[in-house]
User: What shape does this take?
Amino acid sequence: MLLTVGIIIVFVSCIGGFAVAGGNPVSLIHAGEIMIICGIGLGILVVSSPKTVLVNLKNDILKAFKGGISDQAKFIDLLVLLYELFMLGRRKGTPALDEHVSDPTNSSIFTKYPSFLNDAGLVEFLCNSLRPIVDGRCKPGEIGGILKSELSSRESEASRSIKAIEMISDALPGVGIVAAVLGIINTMSNLEDPESVGYKVAAALSGTFLGIFLAYGIGVPLGRLVSLNQGQEMLYYRIVERSVSGFATGLSPIMAVEIGRRSLDKQLQPTADELEEKCKDAAKGG
Assistant: This one.
């Protein structure tokens, strides 16, 4: 919602200021210039990005328009879920986690937290994080390095969307110049009609304006917002990474999830007492 409001403010301020200064907003609209800039910009994006990046970019932009993914309730659900899993592992041994890790959709623990279960990527990361502990395939001190390596790979993959937005934002001013040059060529080839020269020059200049406007009025701030949203989303993975690593090295379940709680931004972070109360309620329910 805020993204939509921001875009409206940008457009109203720009077009409104132009109108107040005596300009006619309609004179900024030239179908040919719009087609050149948007078409070349889209082509550059397609040429420079594989299909997976384009799909992720679409999803990231949709998330930005929906207001991002920050949800304190989901963070709390994740922490309490981890606590329940760690308590089970502590009481009955880590092999008891196998049935939950192998089939999370039918797990009596995972199904209690639909906000977590609906995030396929996070479910996969948590299950993959616990499998080496359940199977005993690595030493407790080694799990942290494994998880950090996977998390780094996920962060690198997610950042490709941001790089695509930054690339197209950098390219748009140049594309605007291309549109302007084409407009000038069109003008110079029709000098026998003096009355149309002014209109065609204005159309050419509108191409330069549109390229710069889209780059710095929309592209750059959108890239920044997507970057912030991805940072928030990675917090879920970082909680899993730090909590599982702590549990694997011998921390008590409540201290393991406390490490995860402290990984959160202050505005999303539940208090230690609140988290402890939630964990106790979950333990009673179990």
